[in-house]
Amino acid sequence: MFQLRIRGLSTRRLAAREGCSRQAISAAATGFGSSHLEEALAHAIDLTPQELFPEHYDARGQRIGWTRVPNRSGHKAQGNVKKTDAA
């Protein structure tokens, strides 16, 4: 955040420029944001995303994907009304 300030930017201004919230920029700054916002943050302080977040990239410079396990249980939500019931 200090690097933004010395360049005359703030999280609020960068968020407005990117069309998101300040909180989204803060999450990106801590490494928990979207790759798009991480890229915007890196470019705002004259770095590449690989330089700012090296832990998110492999040795070839490719972004490492998240390892979140998808929900593939096959269970569909039932809802609160049967198809034959009219609202």
What does this structure look like?
The chain has a domain at 2-56: 434 Repressor (Amino-terminal Domain), CATH 1.10.260. Helix content is 40%, strand content 0%. It has five helices and no strands. The protein has helices at residues 2-6, 11-18, 22-29, 35-44, 49-52. Pfam families: HTH_35 (PF13693). Residues 67-87 are annotated as: Disordered.
Q: Give the biggest sheet.
A: none
Number of contiguous helices: 5
The CATH architecture of the domain at 2-56 would be Orthogonal Bundle
Strand content: under 5%
List the secondary-structure elements in sequence, H or E. Answer: HHHHH
Radius of gyration: 19 Å
**Secondary-structure-derived class:** mainly alpha
Helix content: 40-55%
Number of strands: 0
User: Can you identify the CATH class of the domain at 2-56?
Assistant: Mainly Alpha
Give the end-to-end Cα distance, rounded to a whole number of Å.
51 Å
Q: Average the pLDDT over all residues and give the rounded result.
A: 81
